């Protein structure tokens, strides 16, 4: 009997990892796939516009430099998955937890503000992106039926309202982000619209209809002042920075890896593979789009109507964007919902309004709802939708999000955690080099943020509130 119990105990222990959780089975390949899935978003479609502002040499160099910085700093993040030792230390399950372990409570709070602020901003960006794509579908059909010179301009607002109402319903589903099919659908649709945009651009170039391009981007002239050129370059840096970011989920990816070889070693290989694949895709999308449209490259190559035919393929690409945005919105919003609801639960543990679940049955469907969840999530989605309607500017808003997240999440925290982990002496040569890299990236984030804010404010002056049409 004792032998049997011992055998069962050994068998059970073999099914668990060192932290008592079910044994993880992920590997370098699966982690690489996760990275590519996360980073291939609607921001990819703005890279052609960024290339048009920067030109061939600065544009290609910027994408490659951002990729190299990302590989280096994400490898530093990988070493901080465990504390204090990267091989045998205690696991950090979230980015914020790692910051808290290595840098303390103040930095932990700062990291949380940046992370959750960016998540909230991305939900606004996804609302804008979805409405822009829905309008593009309607325009594709309109141009096909009435000709390419027809007046086909529509308001984004009805589509934003419809998208917002759908998100209010989806927001009431507990743990929506954990639906197993969600990542698969997101991966398929994101690759579909990226490849459709690149394929249509390639067709234009191969047919000989590509526009003139320049080594240093759009030429200063009657339609573009030197100041406007500079601000556009700054905004383009933000667009590229956003496309490189997966810091908010990097530890979620690491937490899927098997324990041997050490997670940090596996993740470093995955970072190289994932970011290299991502960069190749970015270079293809950006370069082909710029080669197709030149100075007139639209902010989004699938919604700016450089392509009219085949109209069904343009529409299909935009349908894929909308499907991706519907699920991605919830993936980003659910962590924000949870942190607020956990905080409310801790503050008022005896409140029925906050904690009580009401079982409900409609026909064969059984579910439960919570009053606080219903009201707070509805208000959140409504506010996000209103902000998107006030500032429906695709490129500028994505650039702002990229600028906000790039320096703190991709550069500053990884470098500071690495310094703390390795106990690098202040003012030593390596310390100075790391701080120089951080400072340069800080300047990039600042100019990108200023450029995007300036673009948003300039566009707001051009249209009447809630009357934007594209």
TrEMBL record:
Gene: LOC100802090
Signal peptide, first to last residue: none
Keyword Transport among UniProt keywords: yes
Residues annotated as transmembrane: 28-50, 56-77, 179-206, 272-291, 311-332, 374-391, 397-415, 436-457
Keywords: Amino-acid transport, Auxin signaling pathway, Cell membrane, Membrane, Symport, Transmembrane, Transmembrane helix, Transport
Single Gene Ontology BP annotation: amino acid transmembrane transport
GO terms under cellular component: endomembrane system; membrane; plasma membrane
Main location: membrane
Function in brief: Carrier protein involved in proton-driven auxin influx. Mediates the formation of auxin gradient from developing leaves (site of auxin biosynthesis) to tips by contributing to the loading of auxin in vascular tissues and facilitating acropetal (base to tip) auxin transport within inner tissues of the root apex, and basipetal (tip to base) auxin transport within outer tissues of the root apex. May be involved in lateral roots and nodules formation.
Compartments where found: Cell membrane; Endomembrane system
GO molecular function, one term: amino acid transmembrane transporter activity
InterPro entries, A to Z: AA_transpt_TM (IPR013057)
Membrane topology: Multi-pass membrane protein
Protein name: Amino acid transporter transmembrane domain-containing protein
Taxon lineage: Eukaryota, Viridiplantae, Streptophyta, Embryophyta, Tracheophyta
Residue ranges of every copy of the Amino acid transporter transmembrane domain listed in the record: 25-455
Family recorded in the similarity comment: Belongs to the amino acid/polyamine transporter 2 family. Amino acid/auxin permease (AAAP) (TC 2.A.18.1) subfamily.
């Amino acid at each position: 009997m004792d032998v049997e119990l011992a055998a069962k105990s050994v068998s059970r222990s073999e099914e668990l990892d060192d932290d008592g959780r079910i044994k993880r089975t992920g590997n370098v390949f699966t982690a690489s796939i996760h990275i590519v899935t996360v980073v291939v978003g609607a921001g990819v479609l703005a890279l052609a516009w960024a290339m048009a502002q920067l030109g061939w040499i600065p544009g290609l160099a910027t994408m490659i430099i951002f990729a190299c910085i990302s590989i280096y700093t994400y490898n530093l993040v990988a070493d901080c998955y465990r504390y204090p030792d990267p091989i045998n230390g205690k696991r950090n399950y979230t980015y914020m937890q790692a910051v808290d372990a290595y840098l303390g409570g103040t930095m932990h709070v700062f990291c949380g503000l940046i992370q959750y602020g960016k998540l909230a901003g991305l939900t606004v960006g996804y609302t804008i992106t979805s409405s822009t794509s829905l309008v593009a579908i309607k325009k594709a059909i309109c141009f096909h039926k009435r000709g390419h010179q027809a007046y086909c301009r529509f308001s984004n607002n009805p589509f934003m309202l419809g998208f917002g109402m759908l998100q209010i319903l989806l927001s009431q589903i507990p743990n929506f982000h954990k639906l197993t099919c969600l990542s698969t659908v997101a991966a398929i649709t994101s690759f579909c619209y990226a490849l459709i945009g690149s394929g249509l651009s390639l067709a234009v170039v191969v047919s000989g209809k590509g526009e003139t391009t320049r080594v240093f981007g759009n030429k200063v002239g009657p339609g573009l002042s030197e100041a406007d050129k500079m601000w556009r370059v700054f905004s383009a840096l933000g667009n590229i920075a956003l496309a490189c970011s997966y810091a908010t989920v990097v530890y979620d990816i690491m937490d899927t890896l098997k324990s041997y070889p050490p997670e940090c070693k596996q993740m470093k290989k995955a970072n190289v593979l994932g970011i290299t694949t991502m960069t190749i895709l970015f270079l293809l999308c950006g370069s082909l789009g710029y080669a197709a449209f030149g100075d007139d490259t639209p902010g989004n190559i699938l919604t700016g109507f450089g392509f009219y035919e085949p109209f069904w393929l343009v529409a299909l690409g935009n349908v894929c964007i909308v499907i991706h945005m519907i699920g991605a919105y919830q993936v980003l919003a659910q962590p924000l919902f949870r942190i607020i609801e956990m905080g409310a639960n801790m503050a008022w543990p005896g409140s029925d309004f906050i904690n009580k679940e009401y079982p409900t049955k409609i026909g064969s469907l059984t579910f439960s709802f919570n009053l606080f969840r219903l009201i707070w999530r509805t208000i959140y989605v409504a506010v996000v939708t209103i902000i998107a309607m006030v500032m429906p500017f695709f490129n500028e808003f994505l650039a702002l999000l990229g600028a906000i997240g790039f320096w703190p999440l991709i550069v500053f925290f990884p470098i500071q955690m690495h310094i703390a982990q390795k106990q690098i002496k202040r003012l030593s040569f390596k310390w100075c080099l790391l701080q120089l890299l951080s400072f340069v990236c800080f300047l990039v984030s600042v100019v990108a943020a200023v450029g995007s804010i300036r673009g948003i404010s300039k566009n707001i002056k051009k249209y009447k509130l809630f009357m934007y049409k594209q």
